[in-house]
Amino acid sequence: MSMLDICVLPGDGIGPEVTDEAVRVLDWFVAKRGVQLRMTRHLFGAASWAAQGTTMPEATWDAIMRADALLFGAVGSLDQTHIPPEERRKGALLRMRKALDVFANVRPVRAWAPLAESSPFKARTVAGADLVFVRELTAGVYFGTPRGIETQADGTRRGVNTHTYTEAEIARAARFAFELARTRRNHVTSVDKANVMEAGRLWRDVVTEVHRADFADVTLEHMLADNCALQLGRTPTRFDVIVTDNLFGDLLSDCAGAINGSLGMLPSAALSAPGPDGRRRALYEPIHGSAPDIAGKGIANPLGAILSAALLLRWTAGRPEEADRLENAVEAALAAGARTADIALPGEAVLGTRAMADAVLAAL
Ligand code: NAI
Ligand code: MG
């Protein structure tokens, strides 16, 4: 495979801290395992607003559109009110996801055996949990129109968002999930609120139709989103692939973060349909945000970002054996006792961001 051009967007808060470590780990694969990546860093968001007076410099947007894949940290700062709304929209992650058409957001969640005691759930509840969300990422209530805050005739305000899904948007997410299930344990749970939402009713109908037409070999169950939130804590081992809409996928994957005790453990890959060359556009990022409460302290858990780099090796670089090698190294580092503060038990020795990545590199 030829040299891949990776656009690195560290962003705000802990974004740069964890992205630096993911890049350092990928550098190891370039140096030692012959993975052909060229990584280039670009400025955007609040940091770029401060430096250049725009949240999305043209050079960054060009690099995003040209790249084979993006490695992304996080956006968002506590106070962005000083940035004009149109500039905030320009630098927004949602705009990037939409422009790249990365509709399938793959969010794997596994209970790491060495962390069984760090989980707020009982070890016997989470042991062996290994599931993956396919969150629809480019439609639904985050994108629907009309939207906005309007002033009503009586002078009071009304906030409006619109939850919409077309048949085509649902069908492509469903197909992606069924195909992924075939590479795993052949089970899909489709999550919606078909009982109270029209787009949810259509979601259930279309997933059922796609299943009947082309994926009858895969087991399909339907589940209401509120029950899914409960089952993720109660019996996370019952899930294989969970396909759901943009909003529920956002919330439920954070719920699943509790399986290991921290959001800092969870990676993601946002993927488009394959292009004419058979390759998917891809945006890799930890699922957490900019974590302003711990930013700048060098204590953030870099494993979500590092495991996102493993997804890049798997989906973009086409090197699944190297992705396995990296995931095994994360497990070995955890088994050797490496812990950042978010996954440590009281009294356990704690590593900073860089030292945790060093533990992974040592295992490699
Ligand atoms: P958050 O995900 O940034 O943090 C939630 C909690 O988890 C915090 O207590 C944080 O300290 C902890 N946490 C997150 N990542 C961690 C890590 N790697 N290591 C250790 N602890 C970690 O969500 P929050 O606080 O609700 O939002 C903060 C900002 O991030 C907001 O501006 C929000 O809009 C933005 N955000 C951005 C996302 C993105 O860029 N994809 C996703 C989610 C939120
Ligand atoms: Mg979220």
From TrEMBL:
Subunit composition and interactions: Homodimer.
Binding of Mg(2+), residues: 226, 250, 254
Keyword set includes Manganese: yes
Reaction(s) catalysed (UniProt annotation): (2R,3S)-3-isopropylmalate + NAD(+) = 4-methyl-2-oxopentanoate + CO2 + NADH
Residues that, per the record, bind NAD(+): 289-301
Family note: Belongs to the isocitrate and isopropylmalate dehydrogenases family. LeuB type 1 subfamily.
Cofactor: record remark: Binds 1 Mg(2+) or Mn(2+) ion per subunit.
Record's keyword terms, sorted: Amino-acid biosynthesis, Branched-chain amino acid biosynthesis, Cytoplasm, Leucine biosynthesis, Magnesium, Manganese, Metal-binding, NAD, Oxidoreductase
Subcellular location as annotated: Cytoplasm
PROSITE patterns named among the record's database cross-references: IDH_IMDH
Name of this chain's protein: 3-isopropylmalate dehydrogenase
Binding site for substrate: 97, 107, 135, 226
